[in-house]
Amino acid sequence: MQDLINEFESKLRDFGGEKVYLAREIQKIFGYDKWERFLGAINRTILKLDKKTIEENFFLITNKNTGGRPMQDMYLTLNACYFVLQNCDDRKQEVNLLKNHLKNLIDDQAKVERKINKIKFFDKVSIYLFLSFLVLLLLFYIQNYTNLLYLTGDRRGIITQNIPINEIKAVEKIVNTEFKKYDEKLSLNKNEIIKEEKNENIDYLKANILEIKDKNDTLSNLTEFEKKFNPRLDILKNITGENLIKSFFELGNTGLYRSSCSLLSPDICLSKTKGNLSNFANFWNKTVNGYNIESIKKVVENNGENIYCVTYNYKLKNDLSNDYIKETFNYTTTISNGYEQISKRFCEKITKGNRNLKCPFALKTYYCK
Question: CATH for 235-369?
């Protein structure tokens, strides 16, 4: 028996990475002297199998005989050999011996494959669980950091950069009284500030101690401080181009005048506020529901200086005609202090209802046609 098994195992070949046996080499081991009879057993087997099983286990080839003439042959997998044995002559001793041997081999192979698949499954599960843990841990840290930003922003009277522009709230808590609060602290040193504000405001203080100390060294009075204090929130610092101009109007329309003014250059913002935000607010308060942008289009781009044509409409309060006013201005944006700002705006066209109105000044160059 062992000699028969050893002879069968010696015929093992490799066919494209698949372990196979050449049918003509194992026909005598299976007890067949004539190829036609062994081929008949193979054909009977194939008739009983589905297409997928046949394609995975039976590979028809053409070899040459000793005379050089074409000769049909076939590669059989271990499973194919076992299937063929079920259709061979049971009276042959070789058939029964090989049946038991191949069944044991196939069972062992199936056990190994199940074990490998189990290992692969647990590897995938463990990797998935590990990655899920990392994601949850990251989300936990992000949430805690976000909460800290919200808390710090609330204590400072501003909203953090995690909130979209259209949800900026409470920005105008930094009003003139806030400037006075700053001014009063200019004479206090670091320890006195911490002692005064206590623990509930410690985040706010840490963020502003150096700023307060610097202003204490350079500013002499509240007026000078207020002139230089034209802060832009972090969320607004990266706004550029059309979005910068659009945000200028949107913030003003929602009453966030300080944030809106901060998108202008400091000189223009100062001239509009004249030291008091109520002056800047009149730009919007004279209208019904603010300004409605119709279009923003870039017309000039030159070394960081960009010119946009901006058309918007609005309706004046207490205007008996009830007509909309439509204005077209060219807006110039430039880069300063690392972020883009609106540095110029000139009137090009004004209409009210069906009438054309004159702009305050005539321009040498008109960009919006």
Answer: 3.10.450.100
